[in-house]
C-alpha cells in the first residue's frame, strides 16, 4: 500500500473489499497490476471505495430484474393464458370468451383457454380474477352483470369493478326488445304506456330472475316511461316465453336475438327496441324514442378485463391482437345475433365508469337486491 505524505495510512482492507476491487475490469490481474489506493484530504478513500462497491450487487440485480421484466412483457404471451368466464357454459359471456380465446390463440401462437367459474351469479369468477396475479396470464370476460349490476345488487361485494380491473377491450354488444303477446289489445307502445298509467299494475311483465339483464331492462323502461307494471318472476327466459306465447303474460324484455324467432313467426309482437337505433335484425321494430318513450338507450355489452396493475405493455399487446381479430369476430358475433364492437381505447375507462354509475343508481332507486 502506498501512502500519500501528510495523510494517515488507511487500515488494511478486508478480504471482501480486495476481492471486489480485483473484480473491476482492467488490463491485467491484481497480482500483476495492484490497484493503487489513495486517501483524499479529510477521509479514507479505501473505506469510501469499499462502501461504493457495496452498491454494485444491488444495482446489478435491479438492472437484471428490469431487463428480465421488459423481455417478459415483450415476449408476452410465452405461456398459456386463462380467460375466466364467470358463468357456466352457454350464454353470451361464454360465447365471447371462447371466440376470443380461439382468435387470440391463432394470432399469438400461444394457447388462450376458457375456465368457466360460476357462482353467486357472476361474483365468484370475477372475484377470482380480481385476486389473480396482474401479469396478463389471467383475464376476465366482463359485462354489465359483473362490472355494473353486482355493486348495487349485493351489499358486501368482495371486489370493486372500477378499482380492481382494467378494461382491455369491449368487443360485443346486443340490444333488448320489448315483446308483447300477439292478442294483446294494446298494439303500440303508446297504448301500453297509457293503459299502465291509467291503471297501474294492469299490465304484467315477466322478469327472468332478479337482477338479470331482462329484469333490469324492464326496470329501466318503467323508470323512463313513468309507469308501474306488475312484475311476474320466472327462473329464466324459456319459461317466461312459454307463458307469453300462451297469453298468460302481457310483455317481456329480452335480447333481440332470443325474441326474434317468436316475432318473425307471428307468435309474439315486437313492440320497441331499447337501443338508440333500430336493429338490423328487426328493422321494422321502432326504437323506444320513435314509439314515444324518450331517453331510453339500453345495450348489453361484453369484453375482456385484466386485473389492475397489469403492465401497460401487456395491455397494449392484448388490445392490438384483439383489434386485429375484429374482422373474424364480426362474422362470428353476427351469427349469434349480436355485433362486434370496437370502442376506442381512450374511451374505455369513462364508458365503464358511466355504465357503472347509471345502472347502480337505477338498481338502488328501484330497491332491487340479491342479499
Which tags fit this structure?
371 residues, alpha/beta, D-Maltodextrin-Binding Protein, domain 2, 3 domains, ten-stranded mixed sheet, 44% helix, globular, disordered N terminus
Describe the structure.
The chain is of the alpha/beta class and about 375 residues long. The chain has 3 domains: about 15-75, no CATH class; about 80-170 and about 305-365, Bordetella uptake gene, domain 1 (D-Maltodextrin-Binding Protein, domain 2, 3-Layer(aba) Sandwich), CATH 3.40.190.150; about 175-290, Periplasmic binding protein-like II (D-Maltodextrin-Binding Protein, domain 2, 3-Layer(aba) Sandwich), CATH 3.40.190.10. Helices cover about 45% and strands about 20% of the residues. It contains 14 helices and 10 strands. Strands 1, 2, 3, 4, 5, 6, 7, 8, 9 and 10 form a 10-stranded mixed sheet that branches. Strand 5, helix 8 and strand 6 form a beta-alpha-beta unit. Helix 4 (about 90-110) packs antiparallel against helix 13 (about 325-335) and helix 6 runs parallel beside helix 14 (about 345-365). The termini are far apart.
CATH topology of the largest domain: D-Maltodextrin-Binding Protein, domain 2
The number of distinct structural domains comes to: 3
**SSE topology string:** HHHEHEHEHEHEHEHEHEHEHHEH
Q: What's the alpha carbon Rg, rounded to whole Å?
A: 32 Å
> How much helix is in the residues?
40-55%
Q: Number of helical segments?
A: 14
Mean pLDDT: 85
- What's the count of strands? 10
Low-confidence stretches: 1-43, 59-69
State the CATH superfamily name of the largest domain: Bordetella uptake gene, domain 1
End-to-end CA span: 80 Å
Q: Mind telling me which CATH architecture of the largest domain this is?
A: 3-Layer(aba) Sandwich
Please write the CATH class name of the largest domain. Answer: Alpha Beta
Largest sheet: 10 strands, mixed
